[in-house]
Design brief:
The protein has 162 residues and is mainly alpha-helical. Helices cover 66% and strands 0% of the residues.
């Protein structure tokens, strides 16, 4: 609570008194010590001067009218225009999808040779995958052999036009 040589309030204790958080002991010291009371009164005087200067400055400025900024017009896109654009995008997407579906199976000349080539390629890929499966886990029974998938695959093969 005391500063130099224990005679006066510390800066912190004086600050507490000035903001109204002083202890009873600090208040008693302030009542009995002219030097600490002079510091507190000087600060209170400075606050009064600041308040007076602030009020004078505010009055000197005068009242200015409040200018309300005009609101920018809200531009809304008409619902019909948005709906038309969405319908156009949907129509194009459906058209592209149908076009890819119809013409997606035709590779090269689109003849039966292309289908046979792809069936041959599928068979080669299946053999490769079976070889990899056997190499990875030789002690396990292959699901292809276990369920007889190669025999069933030949029975259920779709007929392709030639």
């Amino acid at each position: 609570m005391t500063g130099e040589l224990g005679k006066h309030l510390s800066e912190e204790a004086l600050d507490d008194v000035l903001i109204g958080l002083g202890t009873a002991e600090s208040e008693a010291h302030l009542a009995g010590c002219a030097a600490c009371r002079a510091k507190a009164e000087a600060f209170a005087g400075d606050v009064r001067l600041f308040n007076a200067a602030s009020a004078a400055w505010s009055e000197a400025r005068g009242m200015r009218p409040v200018v309300v900024a005009a609101e920018a017009p809200v531009r809304r896109m008409p619902f019909a225009l948005v709906g038309s654009a969405a319908a156009a995008v949907l129509a194009i997407a459906v058209g592209v999808s149908v076009g890819h579906h119809r013409h997606g199976t035709m590779r090269g000349d689109g003849g039966p040779g292309a289908v046979e080539d792809s069936q041959t390629q599928i068979a080669q890929d299946n053999e490769l995958l079976q070889a990899v499966s056997v190499a990875i886990s030789p002690q396990e029974v292959s699901p292809v052999d276990e369920y007889g998938l190669t025999a069933r695959h030949k029975k259920h093969r779709k007929a392709h036009p030639k």
